[in-house]
Amino acid sequence: MNILALNCGSSSVKFKLIRFDVDGCPRELASGLVEEVGSGASLFRYVGIDGEPSVERVRALDHEAAVRLVLDALTAPRRGPLEGLSEIAAVGHRVVHGGAEFRKAVLVDDAVREAIGRCSALAPLHNPHNLRGIELARALLPGVPQVAVFDTAFHQSMPPEASTYALPEETRSELGIRRYGFHGISHAYVARRAAEELGRPPGALRIVTCHLGNGASVAAVKGGRSVDTSMGMTPLEGLVMGTRCGDLDPAVVLLMVTDGHLTPDDVDRLLNERSGLLGLSGASNDMREVIERSADDSRAELALEVFCYRVRKYIGAYTAALGGIDALVFTGGIGENEPEVRARACRGLDFLGVLLDDGANERGAVRIGAGSVAVLVLGTDEELAIAMEAHGLVT
User: Fold this and answer.
1) Which residues are marked as active site?
2) What is the DSSP letter of 95?
3) 3-state secondary structure of 271
4) How many domains would you assign to the chain?
5) Where does a domain end: 84, 115, 150?
6) What confidence score (pLDDT) does residue 122 get?
7) Which domain holds residue 49?
8) Does 373 lie in the same domain as 267?
9) How far, in Å, CA of 222 to CA of 226, rounded?
10) CATH number for position 307
11) Residue 41: its pLDDT value, please?
């Protein structure tokens, strides 16, 4: 059975085609990414059945053109793993926000589409594009089951004390205000991978997972279930990110409006697009550049240290929330590739049993811990996780 995982962003379409054998074991057949969708010079990165990566300039003026490029590549002679689109048994879609309505992946029908649309108010930068991907797949692959896999679903297991903001109940109920959490597909995947790596059942482990990238979050996972996470009602809360500020005193927003004379739209753009590493460093939201400049640039050094301090603080907080820690996991573009960030994030945590093997950390080994707590560097694979959820629903 072939499952296509589709992740439609604002200006990109990421995909993987996974084949599941009769025992349910997955095998990747093809993968890729269409970047800069909407421009006249999009990039199409593709790895076909021959395993050779390729990059070419293409015209993908909208998401429909991008999805058509993907489907054409999957059925192309020699490099495409499919003889025809009828060989696709289901399509799994990443949907960032499922609100309180979705606790697990679901088959898409008209009611689900409407619910995803309603949640767009909570994730206006993501859900409309996720929904567009669903609509395109339904049109281009008629009759093929579509499955929505929600980033928020994994965190629906948070207890009320972790998910509730201290606001009046009538305000929370009227506006749907609560902590939802994000990156759930990734946190669930690497928590499961950590249990496999350690040879222990997920139900027996207390794990702190750090998904660090341009968007970043930490989750506390106990017995395979999320009990807390750093992002809140939107992806703005929590860690310092590439361009998002993370945790912020709400009175700062009021000050920006009253004394700074900013409009709500101005504040939204400032907090989401001009803050984080970019705002602190004054030059870049790319952690590689921030680290490179940190040796002789005080603003870059501050950006690096604030980022790592915030991660370290959440690791400590979530160890308390879990009542101890068995494993600490780093994943995401920064978490997997920046030993300097991992070292700084773990600095001073030896009292918890978190201690790094400096050599293993520099090499980017899977196991980098030297203390009683297992510290792991694990690659996330959200598309594989999406395909696995979809496979589970259609078989």
Assistant:
1) 151
2) E
3) helix
4) 2
5) 150
6) 82
7) 2-150
8) yes
9) 6
10) 3.30.420.40
11) 86
